[in-house]
Amino acid sequence: MNSTHGVNLEGIEAIIFDMDGTLVDSEIYTIRAIEELTREAGLSGSRVQPDDVYGVTWDVVSERVLEAFPELGSDSVSLALQRHFRAISQQDGCALIPGSDAYFAIVSREVKVGLYTSNVRAAVTHLLGEHTCFEGLDTIVTSEDVTESKPSPQGYLLAAQRLGVQPERCLVFEDSTAGLKAARAAGMRTVGVTHRCADLGAVQALAGQTISDYRALLN
Description:
alpha/beta; six-stranded parallel β-sheet; two-stranded antiparallel ribbon; 8 strands; 13% strand
């Protein structure tokens, strides 16, 4: 298969998707979780930029929140953020990035498909559990399977290994700069998903091509 509606798949044997902000519209819940945590602590002000916390593990998010809000002074920030993220996603549900289900259905019939997310497996179970369209994933790698957060390539290399595909024959769909840097460091081709892009210029610079959502690939 050489192309699928505008994405060049020549030489590609596997597609690896990020989850939050790439397949499902949940990346924004990270910022909301931070806002809930700081509100509970009686703190105010927006001291954390989305691009600093999108695409990285909860431990890294926690470190950056503590740098911005040293008043929190807690060693349980990561777990508290995960609790807020879970509560928000359960309350509000999680919409798909437009067209992600249809595009996934097309490519999963043609190449191997994997997932690598900086989120935890429980979040994957919940968020993707709402959308059975992604049951065809051939492998799932989460933050609990790696020791290094994006932008390290470790998770993407592990996903490729589990898929039995050389990294250079993998194509990655990502929404965050950390994730795109990780995929590029792994030697993989990239597509940036800009539906809720925190830094459009940075994503455009890092991605081989960009899409606002998957509907552009279905025409």
